[in-house]
Specification:
Blueprint: H1 3-19, H2 24-39, H3 49-53, H4 60-72, H5 76-83, H6 87-92, H7 100-110, H8 115-123, H9 135-150, E1 155-156, H10 157-174, E2 179-183, H11 184-187, E3 192-193, E4 196-201, E5 214-219, E6 223-228, E7 232-239, H12 244-251, H13 255-258, H14 273-280, H15 296-300, E8 315-319, H16 330-339, E9 344-347, H17 362-376, E10 383-391, H18 402-405, E11 410-414, H19 423-435, E12 439-442, H20 460-470, E13 473-477, H21 490-495, E14 500-503, H22 515-524, H23 538-546
Parallel strand pairs: 4-7, 8-9, 9-10, 10-11, 11-12, 12-13, 13-14
Antiparallel strand pairs: 1-3, 2-4, 5-6, 6-7
């Protein structure tokens, strides 16, 4: 074990003890040990007890801990603190530039227990009023969080899409004579990806790698492995031109799905994927559907001709403004949405129970309604609907009394608190909210945050069945950290005639652009235009919410 690794134990111990507000003297001694050990030239593993004891700032207690770490690879003391600290909070302690005091405020004051939750809170503008933060600190924290999350081994598709497309463009420019294509998880637009893969018709020696951000790691006869900006795996695979279609299909399909393509091993030549499907006598299957959850028989029922497209979306239904925890004003949100070609906007700020998000009390709800009325006089080609993201309370009831709920154009009902109910109670709570006559859309049904927080357990079929019975739509939250409802449940929703609302849950103007990622997820689930709530023209949408 290296000195750096041993020092790391003491660094972690000092941070986690400070997080728990432990003895300041011990914390300083562990911090000092960390600095001392890092600067040592001689490996601790080669030093005897007397030499270790004589080190500056290292007494018998710390010496004993060093010996324990060398012999066992563990620290009993650190293990004890780890057991009482959520794993995500420990991860937050690793974000450079933000010490235990700030992490403690996030954890204890806002209930944030992971980096993704912290980033989401930054996007919702929730850290500005938190002790020790403020607008500038929140901005800096967000930047550092984004870097931290990118450095881990799994990635949201959204975080790699632009990188992959830019790399593809640059690679094609440098290799104009070679056929190059994005393949793998990125081609099938998997929600979570491990790497970026490219397929090239040619040989490694014919390929020019002229991108300074790519550092070669390993090279073989049919591949080159690299890292983008030292973190993201980017792999190049090479094959003969007459095998390109075969290789592209096999690399862009999940292994379980590929096993259904009987006879593919007998195909000798196929320059395109279309050629492979023709030889198999199977209709072409788009990359998004080559997932383990789909069988060929299942896909035959999909209506690819009417699959939802981003330009089919007419309205943006779930958005926040400065009335609650948004960054931009109601007018700024509306003007931006209109500039993107949408016909209507649902402004759905948080309800009063969401005190942590500056939820609207009744007087501010009425104030917002008045502003909406005035803004709607400005445009004859765009309309703002009066909505609310009403908290679903513990018993399933909605925030606000009936006299307020009845005056909204539509209500999005969402769970934000008490996420640790068991499956039976969580399902019952949602169904009670769905049965409320004022609920029109069920927001982010499981409350999940991808790569950070699993959704709370619900019986999806019972929830979807309840929506079907009560004429309630289900949100596909387009924020790339949510994408909730999961695309795997969209076919069941459509079978029950439950419409899906692709909603950005935008807390800024830029958040509206997340409709792109919501559409990608919806297409993976086979969502058609006719089954998408906000693909309706404004007149049809008005009829839907008033019936």
């Amino acid at each position: 074990m290296s000195n750096k690794e041993i020092a790391g134990f003491f660094n972690q111990l000092a941070k986690i003890m400070e997080l728990h507000d432990e003895n300041k003297f011990k914390i300083r001694s562990y911090s000092s040990a960390y600095l001392t050990i890092r600067k040592l030239d001689q490996p601790l593993t080669e030093m005897d007890d007397e030499a270790i004891n004589s080190l500056k700032g290292v007494g018998k207690a710390i010496s004993a801990k060093i010996k324990e770490i060398i012999e066992t690879g563990e620290s009993t003391t650190l293990n004890r603190y780890n057991e009482i600290t959520p794993p995500g909070v420990r991860e937050l302690l690793s974000v450079k530039g933000f010490g235990p005091k700030k992490i403690y405020a996030l954890w204890k004051d806002l209930g944030i227990e992971s980096p993704i939750e912290a980033l989401y809170a930054c996007n919702e503008n929730r850290l500005i009023d938190l002790k020790g933060f403020g607008e500038k600190t929140q901005k800096d924290f967000k930047k550092k969080l984004e870097y931290f999350l990118k450095s881990r081994n799994r990635y949201h598709y959204a975080s790699l899409e632009d990188i992959a497309n830019d790399l593809l463009s640059n690679i094609i420019k440098a290799n104009s004579k070679l056929k190059v294509e994005l393949v793998g998880q990125m081609k099938r637009k998997a929600t979570i990806v491990d790497q970026i893969d490219f397929l090239i018709a040619g040989k490694p020696k014919e390929f020019k790698l002229k991108i300074k951000e790519l550092d070669p790691v390993e090279e073989g006869e049919t591949f080159i492995k690299t890292k983008y900006e030292e973190n993201i795996p980017v792999n190049f695979h090479f094959c003969a031109a007459d095998q390109f279609g075969m290789q592209s299909l096999q690399m862009s399909a999940d292994e379980k799905f590929a096993k259904q393509l009987k006879g593919i091993e007998k195909i000798k030549k196929a320059e395109t994927e279309e050629s492979v499907f023709e030889q198999l006598k199977i209709n072409y299957i788009i990359p998004e559907w080559r997932e383990p959850e789909y069988s060929l028989k299942h896909i035959e029922k999909f209506d690819e001709a009417n699959l939802i497209e981003e330009n089919d979306l007419k309205g943006v239904l779930h958005n926040h403004s400065t009335y609650s925890d948004g960054i931009h004003t109601l007018e700024e949100m509306a003007a931006f949405t209109r500039s993107k070609g949408y016909q209507y906007l649902g402004i759905s700020d948080h309800s009063k129970a969401a005190f942590y998000a500056n939820g609207l009390k009744e007087d501010r709800v009425k104030q917002q309604w008045e502003e909406i009325d005035e803004l709607n006089k400005k445009w004859d080609d765009f309309k703002i609907f009066k909505s609310i993201e009403s908290d679903i309370l513990n018993d399933g009831s909605l925030d606000y009394e009936e006299d307020i709920l009845s005056k909204f154009d539509f209500v999005i009902a969402s769970v934000h608190t008490n996420l640790k109910m068991d499956k039976t109670k969580a399902t019952a709570r949602l169904i009670t909210a769905i049965e409320n006559p004022y609920t029109k859309i069920l927001g982010h049904p499981t409350g999940r945050l991808l790569l950070s927080r699993e959704g709370y357990p619900i019986d999806h079929k019972k929830v979807i069945d309840a929506c079907s019975k009560n004429g309630v739509s289900i949100e596909l939250n387009a924020n790339p950290y949510r994408l909730d409802i999961d695309w795997r449940w969209i076919p069941y929703c459509m079978s029950k005639e439950v419409k899906i609302a692709i909603n950005p849950d935008a807390h800024s103007k830029e958040g509206i652009l997340h409709m792109h990622f919501g559409t990608i997820a919806a297409r993976k689930g086979g969502l058609t235009k006719s089954s998408c709530l906000n693909a309706m023209e404004i007149t049809d949408f008005e009829q839907f919410i008033t019936r």
